What we know:
The chain is mainly beta. Among the domains are: 6-210, Immunoglobulin-like, CATH 2.60.40; 221-226 and 606-618 and 628-856, no CATH class. Helices cover 3% and strands 53% of the residues. The chain contains three helices and 48 strands. The strands form six sheets. It has a 24-stranded antiparallel barrel. Strands 1, 3, 6, 7, 8, 9, 12, 13 and 14 form a nine-stranded mixed beta sheet that branches. The two termini are 43 Å apart.
Amino acid sequence: MQAQKQYLSQKTDIEPQIDGLLNDQAWEKAQWINEFTQRSPYEGNSPSQKTIFKILYDDDFIYVGIRAFDDEPQKIERQLSRRDNLQGDYAGITFDSYNDKRTGFQFRISAVGVKADAVISNDGSNTDRNWDPIWYGKTNIDDKGWTAEMKIPLTQLRFSNEEEQTWGVQLTRHIYRLEEEIQWQLIPKEATGWVSEFGQLKGIKNIEPKKEASLTPYAVSSLDQFQKEPDNPFKDKGYKLKLNGGVNGKFGITNNLTLDMAINPDFGQVEADPSQVNLTAYETFYSEKRPFFIEGSNIMNFRLMPMGNFMTDNLFYSRRIGGRPHYSPDLADNEYSESPQNTSILGALKLTGKTKDGWSVGILESVTQKEFATIDNGTEGRLENIEPLTNYFLSRVERDFNEGNTMLGGMFTATNRKIDATQLEYLHTGAYTGGLNFKHFWQDKKYVFEARSTYSHIVGSEEAITQTQESSTHYFQRPDANHLHLDSTRNSLTGYGTSMMFAKMGKGNIKYAFFLNMKSPELNMNDMGYQREADHISELFWIQYRILEPIAMFRSFYFNVNQWEIHDFNGTRLTTGGNYGVGMQLKNYWYINFGTSFNLEHLSKTALFGGPYLKLPHNINNWVSISSDNRKKFRISFGGSSNSVGSEKTDYYNTWMNLRYKPHEMIDLSLNPSISFNNNNLQYVSQESFNSEHVYIMGHLDQTTLRMSFRANISLTPNLSIQYWGQPFISAGKYEEFKRITDPRANKYSDRFHAFSNNEINYNSNNEAYAIDHNADGTVDYNVDKPDFNIMDFISNLVIRWEYTPGSTVYLVWTQNRSGNDGKGTFKFNDNTSDLFNISPYNVFLIKATYRFSLN
């Protein structure tokens, strides 16, 4: 292990001018340090270019000066971009001002002056790049290379009130054209930790902890423009004007704890969610994009599976707050309605931070408004409640012990709804979840053991609890679920979950991990969290071999193998599968990744949407991706996947491409087309009733999906940018060869269903439904609506962002949405594209301005 380096900072009575030149008298007091080491590609080698730095401080600021020498300054990569999206050459510093060996405050700047910052937690496991502190930085390029000057207010850091400070510190530099990373304190690639490996910053004396205090009010004016509908009182003018305003605040409660508050927050400048077609029983998961909920979210995260992306289950899913209203009103003939797209957040408070004693704290309190739909038939109107007044509360604590090698924590969430409308009684009046977590490292963090437990308790009307039991998360009504009981008289539901992991994560070329996960049938986290399914017991084993240093034709290389098995609480085996994956970067800087995964014949709980388990054939999925040298102005990535199933007429193919071009240092263009073909011989259509029995209707689905996103980023200066994102989306699905399930677990595939003959099914174009004679007696027994679809969307955002002074911003935004579904079911590119752009657009034009008032 490399010896820990130390840097002795000096106090200055003269504040240096932040111009990137490093020629102020103040810098003469500090000593240049040049002891950098290459980490990548060749760990431990001397850097190809020399780097030196100085650190000063006074009562209010930390000053950092960096001289990045370059013997070919004309090759310094100068790429403008938005904040937190560094491209080209850059350098930076990270402070562990808590000196807890787990938390870092990172400040980076590119050779052309673009800033990036982040909070690093859990010793490098989590990085929050949405933290936007107020700090100052300038750069300059000359014949020796380039220089950077930083001025960081102490209000943006968290530290103790000791007379003499000892902080962790790390300085890094990235040389773009060589893909070379150099560090002052070398952190080996095989190291498990990050912040715990930092060097030390000493010499800072007699500074007082600072408490940040600022208010940032905003005002927004918007114009909605859409097609006129003379008979619709809400769209008869073809436009709507709206004015709105609110305020955000940030206050240091103590030096270690920060309170963020928002009154009537606005997220009009946030990019829209991409279009999707979801034919599964599960809820679509969308990533969070709203700054208030992203910043500081690491401490509020509590995933049931501690590592990897094997499951998305989490006690906190921030998209629940301010989401779409739950209820859609039924309309009579000639009635029209207008409903808010999202529930209004009246106010939100967030307290986050970490104490000197090692306590990490996160508290969130938010209230969303009672929402109404306005319904009007042109002569009279009425209001109908579509969302109750709701309170969301979260608290999270975690304590570090044993120099950060042991952690113990817990989390609690509460969702309370004030339901005073009959149509909303299907919602839970209260939902409460909690969790405990324990984590321990040993042998210099070579090995780790982690355990987590969760519980949930929901309360509500008999209707609400019955709907929960029947939801896709639980499916208590399944006729073959002997260990489950649907009780329509219950007013509450309580469940639990647990997971354990043992892993070797560092030191050497081999890493491995073993996971156990359990979710009881009653566990439900979906009021404030996200959970796809319950009644689940799984184990997973993962092992990786990696080459950390360039060898032969590779700059890097890894090989993964996974194995998994899933059971329900009745002991029924649902799935057994595994995969392998290979990834490499070649000496020419190209990347190649490929792999194969498989599942043996398995049982699906959701294929029949509440029906019994359906036995599905084995499947094999192959995937590959290839990416060119990402240092070049023109870059290309492409790949695809294929999923073949051990049955007739079922397969899936997908191919995609990413084209990226930087014609100028200010311009970044990308085009991402993809197309997929989905053929499913057992796609769920509907559930019918015949002689008091449930009948599950399936069909052969032939689906083609095309999406093509285009993105243009134009960075005029580090603080002024123009961003455009647009995505046309077309998905067409046609159903044929209808059938009903007869014996869902039959050993022979063809015995699991009965395919309707021409005498048993007939399409009626007048009502667009299939008439089915179930028992072939010449009488129609039930009708099934035609399920074919042609979903067409075009979503685009144009955002001009100007940070005219640190922390204060003006946004000019244009959003357009075209959406339609004609139900043809056939994919014809020319016709579908023409239909898409013939849809009348819904445009939103808005201007938003914020101004930050410092109260310090």
